[in-house]
Amino acid sequence: MVAVTFDGQELTLVEGENLAAALLAAGVDTFRETPVSGAPRAPFCMMGACFDCLVEIDGTVRQACLATVTDGMNIRKPNGTSDV
């Protein structure tokens, strides 16, 4: 188990787990909002095709379904239309 933060909230996740799955298991139900309507988005395809799971990880916008949990990750919802 390792400590990460998601939008300032400290979470304890299993190291090496798929990040999207680990965040969902920890109760995170919104990974980002759409830039136009602000509709909440969360993982959908879990294989990198849909981009609904975009998050900012340590300053870089990535798909959570293609990342693994590592100690000390700073994760937050991406801001602005340039991120999606």
UniProtKB/TrEMBL annotation:
Q: Please provide the record's keywords in A-Z order.
A: Oxidoreductase
Q: From which residue to which does the signal peptide run?
A: none
Return the Gene3D superfamilies for the record: 2Fe-2S iron-sulphur cluster binding domain, sarcosine oxidase, alpha subunit, N-terminal domain (3.10.20.440)
Species annotation: Hwanghaeella grinnelliae
How is this protein named in the record?
Answer: (2Fe-2S)-binding protein
Q: Residue limits of the 2Fe-2S ferredoxin-type domain?
A: 1-81
What Pfam families would the database entry show? Answer: Fer2_4
InterPro entries for this protein: 2Fe-2S-bd_N, 2Fe-2S_ferredoxin-like_sf, 2Fe-2S_ferredoxin-type
A GO molecular function term, named singly, is: oxidoreductase activity
